[in-house]
Amino acid sequence: MRKGEETRTRILDVAEAAVLQKGFGGTSIEELIAETGITKSGFFYHFKDKNELAKALLNRYIENDERIYDEIFSRARDLMDDPLQSFLLGLKLLSELLSDLPNGHPGCLVATVCYYERLFDREIQETNRNAVLAWRRRFGRMLREIMEVYPPREPVDVDQLADMVSSVLEGGIVLSKTLKEPNTLAEQVLMLRTFVRLLFLPAVEQPLAVVRQHQVFGAAAGGQP
Amino acid sequence: MRKGEETRTRILDVAEAAVLQKGFGGTSIEELIAETGITKSGFFYHFKDKNELAKALLNRYIENDERIYDEIFSRARDLMDDPLQSFLLGLKLLSELLSDLPNGHPGCLVATVCYYERLFDREIQETNRNAVLAWRRRFGRMLREIMEVYPPREPVDVDQLADMVSSVLEGGIVLSKTLKEPNTLAEQVLMLRTFVRLLFLPAVEQPLAVVRQHQVFGAAAGGQP
DNA sequence: CCCCTCCTGTACCGGCGGTACAGTTTCGAA
DNA sequence: TTCGAAACTGTACCGCCGGTACAGGAGGGG
């Protein structure tokens, strides 16, 4: 059982990198077995077909993704009591994590599946859909907490605002990869952070001196781009 | 020359729909010739290989995309003198156009190419990159005009803000397709519109009655979701 | 009438996804 | 120490697909 898991993981590692660069249709099983140093029979011992490889790949990717978000935002929650400041810090930490990736973000498997949908079965499509819905719930939960303290300056639907986090991430990845500008993604996250700050931080009605103080406080919470 | 163009266009139409659903790697030439009712030799008469099909597909897509943006934002410019109101109206018109698509947005070829990059030649990757840079210039131009009149409430890089429009569109398409919720994309565009309005409309320092008036004015420019 | 555009038809190649199945190594539990 | 399951290897094969090569034909304009 031990060695089997190890080989399986190695296949998944190689497959993930390949699929993110070339899509599922562009990734051949033969190239995967060549790179992992396994035989074709060995491959099909672990995954009965390409669809099952995709299933395992997607599930693993989503789990890992969730783990990263858990870590970042729970750390931000530990450092900041205020839900807004905590969320803003979380976005800051996320953007730092993204800009620390040496070759830029490798791509999102959810998007890859999205642009390949018709060749997968319902189960994979459902898994993918549920991953996006989980993002919506995650960010929605945090935004609702914020809204209990800070009335938004403009009326917004909380689910749509939560989706905006996912949108900017997915879109930022596409831009970053296409432009070959690794930093674009991190910048987009910070731009989203500006939006959230603007939306929830109370409108300033005091003279300039006090305004400054307010702004410094807001910036100190997570730094300024 | 006449009939040739017609057949070529028919191939591109069929190919575009297929590629947006299944990616390039997932789309076989054989299925394209079956659907267009042409022979294999006929196909290779028009496109010497799959790469050249992709090139033609991408160029046509980008041209069409640019045309749509030209139309929408020049129409908005005709209806509104103020650059901010004109941009906000443009986003409103765009979101209406997107929510009128009967089956939702079919997907963006730029994103498809982005997630297939390694199997294309440099020329296609450059074309794709230039398309995104063109978006940046387009929205950046409009945003700079706005900034000459309205100082932003928070300091923002204009290129990054312009990229945010592309991000939200690309990300919104991924979400919309994955969730199978056609309206999500249009909602995301409206959410972006809220951000732009918040960022540029002057901070309110008057009593509540006047605040209301301001908000109604802002909403009247393009309506509220 | 000829030539050019726009195809069709046929034959073939190698790569790939997938199947089938027999045999082998490895390693822990009984 | 043996047994058996897990984790593979090796070989052979199928049909689809991308791509090549090349011969030929319809149809319309000069």
List keywords for this structure.
2 domains; homodimer; Arc Repressor Mutant, subunit A; mainly alpha; 0% strand; Tetracycline Repressor, domain 2; DNA-binding; 10 helices; 76% helix; 225 residues
Summarize, please.
Chain A is mainly α and 225 residues long. Chain A has 2 domains: 1-48, Homeodomain-like (Arc Repressor Mutant, subunit A, Orthogonal Bundle), CATH 1.10.10.60; 65-220, Tetracycline Repressor, domain 2. Helix content of chain A is 76%, strand content 0%.
pLDDT < 50 stretches of chain A: 205-225
Oligomer: homodimer
- Give the helix/strand class of chain A: mainly alpha
- Count of domains of chain A: 2
Fraction of helical residues of chain A: over 70%
Biggest beta sheet attributes of chain A: none
- Biggest interface, residues from each chain: A-B, 60 and 62 residues
Mean pLDDT of chain A: 88
Please give the count of helices of chain A: 10
Number of strands of chain A: 0
Shape of chain A: elongated
Distance between the termini of chain A: 48 Å
Q: Report the sheet-strand fraction of chain A.
A: under 5%
Write up what this structure looks like:
2 copies of one chain form a homodimer. The first copy, chain A, is mostly helical. The first copy, chain A, has 2 domains: 1-48, Arc Repressor Mutant, subunit A, CATH 1.10.10; 65-220, Tetracycline Repressor, domain 2, CATH 1.10.357.10. In chain A, 76% of the residues lie in helices and 0% in strands. Chain A is built from 10 helices and no strands. Chain A has helices at 2-22, 29-36, 40-46, 50-79, 83-99, 109-114, 122-149, 158-179, 183-200, 208-220. The first copy, chain A, is elongated, with a radius of gyration of 21 Å. At the A-B interface, helix 1, helix 6, helix 7, helix 8 and helix 9 of A face helix 1, helix 6, helix 7, helix 8 and helix 9 of B. The structure holds a DNA duplex (30 and 30 nucleotides).
